[in-house]
Amino acid sequence: MKVVVLAGGISTERDVSLNSGSMIYRALQKKGHQAILLDVYLGYEGNVNDIFELEEDWAAHVSAVSEENPDLEAVKAMRPDGAKHFFGPNVLDICERADVVFMALHGANGEDGKIQACFELLGIPYTGSDFVSSAIAMDKGISKDIFRAWNIPTPEGIRLKRGETETKKVSYPCIVKACCGGSSVGVYIARDDAEYESAKVEAFRYDKEVIIEQYIAGREFSVGVMDGKALPVIEMAPKTGFYDYKNKYQAGSTVETCPADIPPDRVRVLQKMAEQVFQALRLKSYARMDFRMSAEGEIFCLEANTLPGMTATSLLPQEAAAAGLSFEDLCEQILRQAVEVC
């Protein structure tokens, strides 16, 4: 098949997306597909007529994820029109020529349903959840409202818009995070008033609305779901701090154990809850749900990721491998699901 692996963009998860895209691109090549890796924001300036026949290494210039967020202003400066509109040169034209677009985007304008809605209007097949489900899952506040409606345990907390004054206080320690962020960008732990005020200022840099919720002391887990069925549970134990951007993407920063070393009954609860979240948010094809488990064994769902990372350190590929599914086969299965839906 002719496949566009769509990555990059101008979200804080740009570098992660490019790394996911490069691995997916190489996996699909190994499976015999005519795959190209395309930066949704920078696009392609050349002749697009025979683009899928070009003998080019589309991932040659993708570098490893750095410890710091990408310099988005420098990225915007690479286009003459700056940020006038989101899609780069020829992006939509190339996507329309493909049999399917493999979505390797993370964060804003990629994981939030906007591009999916555009593709729906243009009749372009794509992988992952549809635009409605993507938008719902991206908004942590709406997701948590749905969790509560489905009796899915989630940390207690409040939503706060920029300029609003809290009418309810969340006890310390608490988590302050951007409502529609990802990769733990804009996520902070506050243990006192000074840290709390600082955390709000920082979180509002990434979104106009933040979530303030109770901090669940304990262990962190993630469960991928493929076509409604849960994969093995993985545990993430950062060597220092919490599971933030650096600990997620710098090799050796976190000890990841899959299958997780926990009692069978906790495994069943985590997997069942992941499948419930998948159903409650109307997700499609695949997703990954994140959880915290208290010292007493109580489990809380934090969020759902509709386009989880596919980098060398990402969780979903590790879970798939534990279930006997190679990275190449994982990508192939996701691709086939998108084609079957069409």
Can you give me a brief rundown of this structure?
With 342 residues, the chain is of the alpha+beta class.
Give the helix/strand layout.
Elements: E1 2-7, H1 14-30, E2 34-39, H2 72-76, H3 91-97, E3 100-103, H4 114-122, H5 131-138, H6 140-149, E4 157-161, E5 174-178, E6 187-190, H7 193-203, E7 209-214, E8 218-226, E9 229-238, H8 245-249, E10 254-257, H9 264-280, E11 286-294, E12 299-305, H10 315-322, H11 327-341
Parallel strand pairs: 1-2, 1-3
Antiparallel strand pairs: 4-7, 5-6, 5-7, 8-9, 8-11, 9-10, 11-12
Helix pairs in contact: 1-11, 4-5
Please explain how this structure is put together:
The protein is of the alpha+beta class and 342 residues long. 33% of the residues lie in helices and 22% in strands. The strands form 3 sheets. It has a 5-stranded antiparallel beta sheet with strand order 10-9-8-11-12. A 4-stranded antiparallel beta sheet has the order 4-7-5-6, with helices on one face. The chain has a 3-stranded parallel beta sheet with strand order 2-1-3, sandwiched between helices. Helix 1 packs across helix 11 and helix 4 packs antiparallel against helix 5. The radius of gyration is 20 Å and the shape is globular.
